[in-house]
Amino acid sequence: MKSIHHAREAKREDVFLATDEHFAGTNVNFRAFAALLVGGTYYTILHSRFNGGLFCGIELKTNEGQQEITRSISLILEMAFRQPGS
Q1: Do 20 and 14 touch, CB atoms closer than 8 A?
Q2: CA 74 – CA 39 distance, rounded (Å)
Q3: 71 neighbors 65 (Cβ within 8 angstroms)
Q4: Element (H, E) at 55
Q5: Which domain holds residue 64?
Q6: For the chain: N or C, fewer Cβ within 10 A?
Q7: Does pTM surpass 0.70?
Q8: Which residues pair with 28 in a beta bridge?
Q9: Is 58 helix (H, G, I), strand (E, B) or coil?
Q10: DSSP assigned state of 26
Q11: Mapping DSSP to helix (H, G, I), strand (E, B) and coil, where does residue 61 land?
Q12: pLDDT tens digit string along 42-70?
């Protein structure tokens, strides 16, 4: 797991360098956004896998539930990029 973690972090660094530049001088910390989105996604997947598919009223074992989560992640990212001063 540790080697996979380090490989993922290395691959993300290029994205973070670009977003660091984009959000420089703003109140948006894109790395923090990413951390919350990734951590929340991991937690949601693990929770639904071990405790049933329902999470916050969304059935994550269905395509519809998974698409709703994906749409919501996209919306959060769009909001970050539309944030005033970004």
Answers
A1: no
A2: 16
A3: no
A4: strand 54-55
A5: 2-82
A6: N
A7: yes
A8: none
A9: strand
A10: S
A11: coil
A12: 999 999 989 988 999 999 999 999 999 99
